[in-house]
Amino acid sequence: MAREGQRAPGLDRRSVVMGAVACCAAGGAAFAGPEDTLPQKGDRLVLADGAKAGQAVTLDGLPVGGELIEAVAVDPQGVRREGSRFSKIILVRVAPDQVAEDQRAHAVEGVVALSGVCTHQGCTISGWNHETKRLSCFCHHSEFLPAEGGRVAKGPARKRLPVLPLARGEGGALMVAGGFIGKPGPGAA
Ligand code: FES
């Protein structure tokens, strides 16, 4: 379980360091990715990594108070949308009434999805603290509020994390209801 001061499952120190190196060495040009690697309306979400990679992300697999999930979108033909760092999607779940009113249309029963790329310098967002309802980036310790549209709670990041609108599919499967709201990746507020 990824809580404050911890990393998401599968993320070791090397992963974090490599993420930091990749973000800072590559510069802005590395963040340009083809549109078809981004999640699109009608895609389904599957677990990105680990022993259960490829399994559908469902409401049952995301209990309130549970861990951060890393997912990838799969198009209607069954092809994973990946190949860009912007393909990264993270999901967390809070109680439905803790989702800000203006964000509820994008959430499913308290589940919210966001870009997994920090808007500061592009590291992977991997920390989640259910108590404070904050996501965190371990590169420079920015924090974001996923239930409030990815708003920045603590810098140095200044731009909110783009939200990915969700829809409920058959059997509680989580589907993509639209593209990211906002451009994923580093940028100004
Ligand atoms: S890359 Fe700097 S806080 Fe995330």
Quick structural gist:
The protein is mostly beta strands and 189 residues long. Helices cover 7% and strands 22% of the residues. The chain contains one helix and eleven strands.
Can you offer a commentary on this structure?
By secondary structure, the protein is mostly beta strands. It has one domain (13-176): Rieske [2Fe-2S] iron-sulphur domain (Rieske Iron-sulfur Protein, 3-layer Sandwich). It has one helix and eleven strands; from the N terminus they run αβββββββββββ. The protein has one helix at residues 13-26, and strands at residues 44-47, 69-74, 89-93, 111-115, 127-129, 134-136, 143-145, 151-154, 163-164, 166-168, 174-176. Strands 1-2-3-4-9 form a five-stranded antiparallel beta sheet, with no helix packed on it. Strands 5-6-7-8 form a four-stranded antiparallel beta sheet, with no helix packed on it. A two-stranded antiparallel sheet has the order 10-11. It is globular, with a radius of gyration of 15 Å. Residues 1-33 have low confidence and may be disordered. Bound molecules: FE2/S2 (inorganic) cluster. FE2/S2 (inorganic) cluster (FES) binds at residues 23, 118, 120-123, 137, 139-140, 142, 156-157. Keywords: 2Fe-2S, Disulfide bond, Iron, Iron-sulfur, Metal-binding, Plasmid. One of its GO terms (cellular component) is membrane. Its cofactor is [2Fe-2S] cluster. This is Rieske Fe-S protein. GO terms for molecular function: 2 iron, 2 sulfur cluster binding; metal ion binding.
